[in-house]
Amino acid sequence: MSHQARGEAETPYFAMPNLPIGVILFGMKLIAQLKLQPTPEQHALLKQTLETANAACNYASAVAWEQQVFGQFALQKLCYKAIRQQFDLGADVVVRVFAKVADAYKLDNQTKRGFKPLAAFPFNERLVSYKLTPQVVSIWTMGGRQKMPFVCGEQQLALLQGLRGECDLVYRKDEFYLFQTCDVEEAPEIEADEFLGIDMGIANIAVDSDTTFHQGKGIKHVRYRHRALREKLQAKHTDSARRKLKRLSGQERRYATNVNHVIAKQIVKTAQDTGRGIALENLKGIRKRVTARRGQRTVLHSWSFGQLRSFMEYKAKRVGVCCKAVDPRNTSRTCPNPDCRHVDKANRKTQDQFLCIRCGRAGHADYFAALEIRRRAEVNPPNVGTSA
Ligand SMILES: [Zn+2]
Q: How far is the CA of 197 from the centre of ligand 1 (A)?
């Protein structure tokens, strides 16, 4: 489905196919991931449906490329009939074919786009419907509509009660999933005069201005444990080694996503319980600083601060806690002493240590950065957007 159209350009760290099974977000549209439980016959039908739909996409893509026609409706005009005749797909599915092809060319129309036989395919409410008790999904296939049970977590089930839009039929490791977009109600935002400042970094994933250190030790540990194995596998160049490597990175990513969820939840709860907003640095600043800190790069390389930030933002939105982005420049070099406020690179002695060269105030560098971020949020006028 197309998230580009919703102004999501600020969140490029979400690549749909790489996400673990769980709840992920796009603004305040959340995606519930449901695992289908088809019979072997239904499994074959779903597979055939995906293969046929993607073959139709490739057909439409070839026409689009040849004729340089990339708009959904123009393309539909050109080859709707041919596709209906050639592929045994329902009218609603064929319409989704053009939507998918047009979406692909929207991203890049300088190269001919191709679709893998089992690539995810977008369905809509006319092709998929749900019953929640018992959990049954009814889905269009090449063999007619099929009803089958599905499993999902409680949170996902709650999401399904809300309004629903498009979903993607996804094939992964011989299982079928529906990634269903759901609208989530937001709580009205509570205005805040006081903020909880959050510094995101390496040694500590996040440190807040209340001196809570959210550490990433577990992450280093996981990566460390895997490093030797990873190197061994990389040297092998076999298919099985490649598969194992892929599985490892999947494990690490799921672990990291979970850590981000836990940290975001704690931070939002702290802010909510104390009636404060959350102050964050804007994303560009974080990236810049992260590349500046050498040596830590391998640990950090795969860490998604963008994801952590998104988790904080959407969890905050759901409970009405306001999030504010502040200018990230020199937050880690500014003395927190209100009578001093000296800004100097030399204030930062080491990764952890801050010692003001003018007034001598000393403390943990990440905590001081969080204090500075808090100060900036409390000083600046409210209603500054968070996406910078
Ligand atoms: Zn100072």
A: 19
